[in-house]
Design goal:
The chain has 406 residues and is of the alpha+beta class. The chain has two domains: 239 residues, Rossmann fold; 108 residues, OB fold (Dihydrolipoamide Acetyltransferase, E2P), CATH 2.40.50.140. Helix content is 26%, strand content 30%. Helix 4 crosses helix 5 and helix 4 runs parallel beside helix 6. The radius of gyration is 25 Å and the shape is globular. It binds adenosine-5'-triphosphate. The site of adenosine-5'-triphosphate (ATP) has 11 residues, from helix 3. It comes from Pelosinus baikalensis. This is ABC transporter ATP-binding protein.
């Protein structure tokens, strides 16, 4: 277990804390997650109680978040939730109102942007119109006085990865939007900075190009594994590019975890209804006399759940649409109101009989769909329960499959 060499180690289980000024539980929490790899984490980015306000308005609230060195982290959330502000604080483009931001083990609250060793890609490509593509990409490297052979080698490699070889002598106005976006990525890539910050870099691309660019982003990351923070409000992008996703709402971090865990075990009702298309069904639940009532129907949950359910009594029961099926021995009954055709699947909109709540079921397109009233079942292993008052996941023991690719 122990690895107490060097001075930047944050926590060693056999000795007291080495770095002062942080609560003990914080290191214990980090160590529990990262174990021996805590070294890498300390070289990453750590937010400690970070707040940002504009006048009286708090836009980032008490953010605690540790990003591992070399990790691809996505900041995801609805418009205005504070993603860009968070990213800009890392870049040094916004002051931090309160709290501490650390990069590479150093507090950087007052460090100038130019001294933070970051590469940043913005939504608008910000290319110099009078320069060629090659000049746009290499300009910053010449300023850094990097040897010409090194500049040529880095640029050649980046142009190849981003399919831009042959475009070196064009001007930005001779490129399509997607190509300009790739030049902007290329220009950041050649810096080989340890921190790579991206703010909605694909938002100007059409669906086809976005798909291709997602793969390129992962390739870029794999090339030299910078610590990568990527802001988006597109959950497909988040799920496919991110190794972990931080979900924000109204300036507060809601959940920070792998895409699988976030999808299958959302931390609260906000995450449950934000992630997934269509989103998770949240049905009213109540636990009385050993039975669970879901949307007004009595059902029998696994006996081992009873203690947990009894602690909450009023609940939201979360069931993903694709985990519902039509059944001859149903748990719930409803009236089909609408059928959406989505190619390989169909989304059935039901109005439940007992309490009139709506339930969405995702079914294979080749499954015959009866008309009128239908019965629906689901398997307990995929069900989530949320406290009826505060909306927090109560941790019913359901099954999570960890099958995402790093
Ligand atoms: N300079 C500023 N002065 C006052 N309020 C600001 C300023 N910059 C941002 N805000 C507010 O802070 C909140 C967070 O903005 P931010 O740009 O971080 O959100 P976001 O999650 O990135 O949104 P989007 O996805 O729409 O870009 C918003 O309500 C915004 O109006």
């Amino acid at each position: 277990m122990g690895h107490c060499h060097g001075s930047r180690h944050a926590y060693c289980p056999t000795t007291p804390l080495i770095i002062p000024n942080l609560p003990t539980f914080y290191y214990e929490y980090l160590y529990a997650i990262w174990g021996e790899r805590i070294d890498e984490l300390m070289n990453g980015i750590i937010f400690e109680n970070v707040c940002k306000s504009y006048g009286e308005t708090a836009v980032v609230k008490d953010l605690n978040m540790a990003i591992q060195e070399g990790e691809r982290l996505i900041l995801l959330g609805p418009s205005g939730c504070g993603k860009t502000t968070t990213l800009r604080m890392v870049a040094g483009l916004e002051n931090i109102t309160a709290g501490t931001l650390k990069m590479g083990g150093q507090v950087v609250n007052t460090v100038e942007p130019g001294a933070r060793n970051i590469a940043m890609v913005f939504q608008n490509y910000a290319l110099y119109p009078h320069m060629t593509i090659w000049e746009n990409i290499t300009f910053g490297l010449f300023i850094q006085k990097i040897p010409i052979e090194e500049i040529k080698a880095r640029t050649k490699q980046a142009l190849e990865i981003l399919n831009l070889s042959g475009y070196e002598q064009r001007k930005p106005n001779e490129l399509s939007g997607g190509q300009k976006q790739r030049v902007a990525l290329c220009r950041s890539l050649v810096k080989q900075a340890p921190y790579f910050l991206l703010d909605e870099p694909l938002s100007n691309l059409d669906a086809q190009l976005r798909l291709q660019a997602r793969t390129e982003l992962v390739k870029i990351h794999n090339l030299y594994r910078p610590t990568f923070i990527y802001v988006t409000h597109d959950q497909v992008e988040a799920m496919t590019v991110g190794q972990r996703i931080a979900i924000m709402n109204q300036g507060a971090l809601q959940q920070l975890d792998t895409p699988d865990v976030i999808y299958q075990r959302p931390a609260n009702t906000f995450v449950a209804s934000f992630i997934g298309s269509p989103p998770m069904n949240l049905l009213q639940g109540a636990f009385r006399d050993g039975a669970l009532w879901i949307a007004g129907s009595r059902v029998n949950p696994p006996t081992k759940w009873h203690t947990l359910l009894a602690e909450h009594q009023e609940l939201w029961i979360g069931i993903r649409p694709e985990q519902c099926c039509l059944s001859d021995t149903p748990m719930l009954h409803g009236q089909i109101e609408f059928v959406e055709h989505l190619g390989s699947q169909r989304c059935i909109h039901l109005r439940l009989h007992q309490n009139g709540q709506r339930l969405l079921c995702m079914l294979p397109a080749d499954q015959p769909i009866p008309t009128g009233t239908v019965g629906v079942s689901f398997s307990w292993q995929h069900v989530n329960g949320f406290d009826g008052h505060v909306g927090k996941n109560i941790g019913l023991p359901n099954r999570i499959s960890h099958n995402y690719a790093c």
